[in-house]
């Protein structure tokens, strides 16, 4: 059974629309040109940036000079290196922000965290219509009118595919 040109167009349009959310992810090079190092104010660096689920943090530094540990809030505050995990130490470490909430990172090299080589960020979860929901806060219950419409990205995709399909007929 051959696929008609109109059906192929609809399928390709669907594929493009479905891949769009991944294009919204942002790669953040921690510290920008200064990289992951001492003598950088990472609080100032993070100000004004909106970190979302799916974004990536890239920690660049000369291998051997630094490392990266994901820690909890109390270990961040006290600059305590966790004993139950290995450091990221490639010099180009990538962390995908997979869940919403507060995230803490430190350098585990002696004295570096105490000199400010630590980063705390809040990761947002993108809710309906791409409105940020802090810490993954659930959206309010949908109204009766909203319930009648298919919600979320799949509803939008279905609408786009339906309109494109009608245009091709």
From TrEMBL:
- On the tree of life, the source organism's domain of life is Eukaryota
Which PANTHER family has this protein been placed in?
A: BLUE COPPER PROTEIN, PHYTOCYANIN DOMAIN-CONTAINING PROTEIN
The top of its lineage is: Eukaryota, Viridiplantae, Streptophyta, Embryophyta, Tracheophyta
The record gives the membrane topology as: Single-pass type I membrane protein
Could you tell me what this protein is called?
Mavicyanin-like
The record's listing under InterPro entries reads: Cupredoxin, Phytocyanin-like, Phytocyanin_dom
Which Gene Ontology terms cover its molecular function?
electron transfer activity; metal ion binding
Localization in the cell: Membrane
User: CDD domains in the record, alphabetically?
Assistant: Phytocyanin (cd04216)
Domain spans labelled Phytocyanin:
26-125
- Bilayer-crossing residues are 148-168
The protein's gene is named: LOC103482677
Supply one GO CC term from the record.
plasma membrane
Q: What is its main location?
A: membrane
Question: Which UniProt key words apply to this protein?
Answer: Copper, Disulfide bond, Electron transport, Glycoprotein, Membrane, Metal-binding, Signal, Transmembrane, Transmembrane helix, Transport
Q: Does the keyword Glycoprotein apply?
A: yes
What are the BP-aspect GO terms? response to symbiotic fungus
Matching Gene3D superfamilies: Cupredoxins - blue copper proteins
Give the signal peptide range. 1-25
């Amino acid at each position: 059974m051959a696929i008609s040109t109109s059906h192929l167009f609809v399928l390709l349009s669907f594929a493009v629309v479905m891949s769009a959310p991944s294009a919204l992810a942002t790669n953040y090079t921690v510290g920008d040109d200064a990289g992951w190092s001492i003598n950088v104010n990472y609080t100032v660096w993070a100000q004004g940036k909106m970190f979302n689920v799916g974004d990536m943090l890239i920690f660049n530094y000369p291998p051997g000079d630094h490392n990266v540990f994901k820690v909890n809030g109390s270990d961040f505050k006290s600059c305590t290196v966790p004993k139950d995990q290995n450091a990221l130490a490639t010099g180009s470490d990538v962390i995908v922000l997979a869940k919403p909430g507060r995230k803490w990172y430190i350098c585990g090299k002696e004295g570096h965290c105490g000199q400010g080589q630590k980063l705390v960020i809040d990761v947002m979860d993108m809710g309906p219509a791409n409105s940020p929901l802090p810490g993954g806060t659930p959206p309010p219950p949908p109204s009766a009118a909203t319930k009648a419409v298919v919600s979320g990205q799949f509803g939008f995709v279905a609408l786009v595919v339906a309109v494109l399909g009608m245009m091709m007929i």
